[in-house]
Amino acid sequence: MRKYRDVLAQVLHLAVIVAICVAAMFGVYAVLGRFDGKVLLGGLIGGGIAIAHFLFLSITIARALDRAREEKNAARVQLSLQASTGIRLLFIAVVLVLLFRADICDPVAALIPLLIAQFALKFIDLLRSGKGEDKP
Question: What is the DSSP track for 112-124?
Fold first, then answer.
């Protein structure tokens, strides 16, 4: 159960950083006079997708590590991880394309949180390695 607590703590750290950065993005849009409902929806959807993606990725990896210890078949576990990643990214791409084609949200406002999440993860990893914590 501890590993899931660690996963949730990491997701919480990511969520806080993404929320702060998305709020800053909304501020930039407001200063530029371009803030509207589509930007709001795009930021919320993009941030939600980024956080959900990291949550599912973390849970998938934790479960795969458990299976690898039990089965002793690393190749099968690695293939499972690759398939899971491909399916998850394809699902995200399809959802985003549908949202953009339906003109439901601002595409840039939806994509920026996904990029922010990647930089936030690098930043969190840098902080953890600076403190000497072990990586999961």
Answer: HHHHHHHHHHHHH
Structure tokens at 10: 């990491």
Cα–Cα distance measured from residue 9 to residue 92, given in angstroms and rounded to the nearest whole number? 23
Buried b / exposed e along 60-91 (16+ C-beta atoms within 10 A): ebebbeebbeeeeeeeebeebbeebeeeeeee
Tens-place pLDDT, residues 112-125: 999 999 998 888 88
pLDDT in tens, 5-35: 888 888 998 999 999 999 999 999 999 999 9
What's the pLDDT score for residue 67?
78
Q: How far apart are CA 132 and CA 19, in angstroms?
A: 26
pLDDT of residue 22: 96
- Into how many domains does the chain fold? 1
**Residue 6, domain extent:** 2-131
